[in-house]
Structures are given as C-alpha cells and as structure tokens.
Amino acid sequence: MTTDRLTIIPPGHPLTGRVSPPGSKSITNRALLLAGLAKGTSRLTGALKSDDTRYMAEALRAMGVTVEEPDATTFVVTSSGELTPPDAPLFLGNAGTATRFLTAALALGRGRYVVDGDEHMRKRPIKPLVDALRSLGVAIDAPTGCPPVTIDATGAFAENRVVIDAGLSSQYVSALLMAAACADAPFEIALAGADIGARGYIDLTLAAMRAFGARVEQPTPASWRIEPTGYTATDFHIEPDASAATYLWAAEVLTGGTIDIGTPAGAFTQPDAKAHDVIAAFPSMPAVIDGSQMQDAIPTIAVLAAFNDKPVRFTGIANLRVKECDRVRALSTGLNNIRPGLATEEGDDLLVFADPALAGQNLPAAIDTFADHRIAMSFALAGLKISGITILDPGCVAKTYPDYWDALASLGVEYKAG
Ligand SMILES: O=C(O)C1=C[C@@H](OP(=O)(O)O)[C@@H](O)[C@H](O)C1
Ligand SMILES: C=C(OP(=O)(O)O)C(=O)O
Description:
Helix content: 25-40%
CATH superfamily of the largest domain: Enolpyruvate transferase domain
Largest sheet: 5 strands, mixed
Bound molecules: shikimate-3-phosphate, phosphoenolpyruvate
Number of strands: 23
Number of helices: 12
Shape: globular
C-alpha cells in the first residue's frame, strides 16, 4: 500500500464471496521459534507472511538458522538447535510476539544478544519478563523497562523455578514456557499478581510446544512444569488467523452479506474465535462485553458497536493500552472523530453509544491509526456504512494482514486514494 490515506466507498450492497484469512500470526511466530530451537528441518505450512513473522524469520536467519520460503504460505526451517549471537542487534519492528518470545529463548543462548524494535516497541513494557529472567541468574538489562534488551547468556538458568507477573502481557508466560523446555533440568513457572488476561494464548503455546516434542504439565491453574526435552523438528500446519477473521465476520453482519472464510468459527483454537458469537448477535450485541479473553477482537467489535441497537460497555480491556498503541484511546478518538459523543472512556472501560442511524450518512473523518493495524482494519468497517471514512497510514495492516485491502476489494469494496 503506497498511498498514505485511503477513503472507503460504502459498497451499498451486501458483501458476499469467499475470502480466506491469512495464517495465524500467533501460531506462526511460535512455530518459527520452536523450529529454530529444534535440530533438523521443520516444514511450516499455512503460515502467515507479514511484517511480524518476517521479523521473526529474519532474526532466526541472523542467528544462523536457515529459513526458506518455497511458497507464499510455507517456511522451511533448518537449524542446529542453537541460536548463535548475531553481529548486530535484532530488529523486531513492533512484533510483540517476536520480541517477548526471543528475549526468553535467547536467555538460554550463549553470548551477547540485543533485542530491539521500532519506536512503538520501545514503549511497550518488557520489565516483568526481564526481572523474571534476571532472577534466574541471567545477565539481562533493559534500562527503560522496554526494548532494547541486552542479554549476556551462558546457556543455563541458575534456578529451576520462576515467578512471573503477567498482568500486562500473557506473552511473558508464553515466552518463559517455550524457553523452559531448553533448560537443563525440569523447570517450574508460577504466576504472581493478577491473573493472565487471555489464557487462550497460553493454550496455543502449550499446543505448539507439544507438537515440537515438549512435555508440559499444569499442576495448578497458576503454575506449569516443563520437562527439559528440548524440541524435535517436525512438520506443522498453521490454522488461519482468528483475529483477521473478525473483520470478515463483522463485514458480513454489517452489510447483511455472506462471506465464506473457509474455516468454521468452531474450528479455530485461537482466543479471538470467541468473538464470533458476539459478532453474530449484531445488531443486538450485549450491553456489556468482557474483552479479557478476546483482546485483539475488541477494536473490531467496538467499531461494530457504533451500529448496534444499544450502547455497549467494554470491560476487561486495560491491557489494550499497552498494545501497538493505546487502543482504548485510539478507539474513543476515532469514534468521536466520526461523530462527537459516540464513545467515552471510563477508567479503562470503553463505552460506545450505539446509533444505527449512522449507516448511510456522510460523515467525513480522517482516522488516525497510530500505526496500529487493528485500528486501521476495524475503522475500515465503519467505512462500509458511512461515507467519508478515510484511513490514515493504511499500509500499517502489513503487520498481520498485508492483503487486507485486496481482500475487501475482492468482495466489491472500492477506495479512493486520499
Ligand atoms: O501470545 C500471543 O500470540 C498474543 C498475545 C496477546 O498479547 P498480550 O499477551 O500482550 O496481551 C495478543 O494481544 C497478541 O496479539 C498475540
Ligand atoms: C497486540 C498485537 O500484537 P503483538 O503484541 O504480537 O505485537 C496484535 O496483533 O493485536
């Protein structure tokens, strides 16, 4: 996407057709890392090729792993099982998964690694994970509490148990879980403080680890025991991305169309598939929606809520403030830009004051996406019903769904550049 602004032309007809979402970002970046930690060749099919997974693949290449791309949805990863220190800092853009997962895995490497990202990633907290790794005797430093992170690794942890506060991000737990199978003794992870937001991401991590030969048990809801198996190279198929699917589910109900995404909602293992039932209830979505177990779907549902038959309060979304941008603020700003008074923040809750009469109106609004793919993709939905919605920096969708604008176009949506 070369244009710096894209105006959506409301199609004026139901969106009907077939569009498959790309592979899951979460599962692709887990599988890439685990394949990089396994000795031998792993073939990952159905994979996502986007900014986030490219950063992970590039980082592995910089550490001596061969990552081939025989086609648009396959990675073939061949590794010695060791990630050798790179010549330069690893640049991971704004990929939270790549940044957090590599930080823990490299703490069991040998030598110096620097994990860094772009200006947005440099504002996303990683201190709880850094503190946990330091408590294991790892020489690790992140002076700002955000990347860059410098790790001087010796190949081992000095302790066999760690306590982690995952209140800000479940990715800290996933990162420790995946690293722990490479330790030299059985390892225990225990949760401190608040519960994890989206537990479903931990389940994704455990499933990927087991597919690569790990043995993990969960003695209590707040602890895990990981055997020191290391990982075994394997062939692994990746399901489509459930968060990407939410935009298509929403486009379908908003326009009264039928979009075949090729995968039934019940077949996804990712947490955001829970959004399907909520979206299917449109235009009578519930008055209170708890976003804690489907966080990445909240921008989609919040924009849809503007057209609901009653206002919606979103709860359990405090950690949306530390994603690619402060999504609670970006959503309230964008909705109020469309029509003042359409949304408000109450503490960390977001209230969207629904108005079905918005559909069909001409309400010119330039939506600041704050470089956040989900803000761009969800506000495009408003443009399916309201004329004048312009998405700024539409290319930011490349983080997880580079073909998003083409996918909508294939359903008959047209755009004006600028
Ligand atoms: O583990 C994962 O793959 C993810 C976990 C979630 O992040 P947090 O754990 O930081 O909430 C989610 O928002 C992110 O897109 C992907
Ligand atoms: C929060 C997200 O990404 P990440 O944390 O993986 O950068 C997301 O994709 O919505």
